[in-house]
Amino acid sequence: MEDLLLGVLAPGPGVPVLIASAALVVSAVWRPGHLGSAFPATVRVLMALGLVGAWICVLAAFAVAFHADNLVEDEAAPDFPGDETAAWADYVYFALSVMTTFGTTDVTVMSWETRRTVAANVTIAFVFHTVIVAGMVAALDSGRGA
C-alpha cells in the first residue's frame, strides 16, 4: 500500500496527494485578511488554478491506478457495463464518478485490490472537497469580511 500511495514502484496518487497536502497546509495556516493583508487578485487566481490542477492530477492518478489494478487482475477488477474492452475514457469516468459521488455508479468492483484503491480515492476526494476547497474559498475571499 505504501508503494501505491507514494507512487514508487506502481502507478499511484503520490504526487497529487503531495500537492493536495501542500494546498491543505497553506489553506489551514494562513487566512488572508486576518494577518494584516489579503492576497492580491493575481495570486488568488493562481491559487484557484493550482487547486483545479491538483484536482485534475488526483483524477488522472486514480484513473491510472484503476487501469493498473485492472491489468494486474487480468481485465477483471472493475466490471464496466457492456461487452467492449475498457478504454482509457472508462477509467477516467470511473475515477471521476468515485471522486464526485463517493460511489462506483454503474461499475462493479470485482477485486479487493480495486476496493482498496476506491477507498483511497474516496478518502482523498472527501478530504479534498471538504477541507481544501473550504480553505481555498477562505483564501480567495478578499479579506474584507462583514
Please name the defining characteristics of this protein:
5 helices, mainly alpha, about 150 residues, 2 strands, two-stranded antiparallel ribbon
Q: What is the share of helical residues?
A: 55-70%
Strand content: under 5%
How do the helices and strands follow one another from N- to C-terminus? Answer: HHHEHEH
Point out poorly predicted stretches.
4-10
Report strand order across the widest sheet: 1-2
Mean pLDDT: 76
Major beta sheet summary: 2 strands, antiparallel
Whole-number total of structural domains: 1
**Structural Rg:** 18 Å
DSSP helix count? 5
Distance between the termini: 46 Å
Number of β-strand runs: 2
Task: Give the CA-based shape.
Answer: elongated
Coarse structural class: mainly alpha
Protein topology:
Elements: H1 2-6, H2 14-29, H3 41-72, E1 78-79, H4 88-101, E2 108-109, H5 112-140
Antiparallel strand pairs: 1-2
Helix pairs in contact: 2-3, 2-5, 3-4, 3-5, 4-5
Structure description:
A two-stranded antiparallel sheet has the order 1-2. Helix content is 66%, strand content 3%. The chain has one domain (2-140). The protein contains 5 helices and 2 strands. The chain is mainly alpha-helical. Residues 4-10 have low confidence and may be disordered. It has helices spanning 2-6, 14-29, 41-72, 88-101, 112-140, and strands at residues 78-79, 108-109.
Short description:
The chain has 146 residues and is an all-alpha fold. It is built from 5 helices and 2 strands; from the N terminus they run αααβαβα. It has helices spanning 2-6, 14-29, 41-72, 88-101, 112-140; strands at 78-79, 108-109.
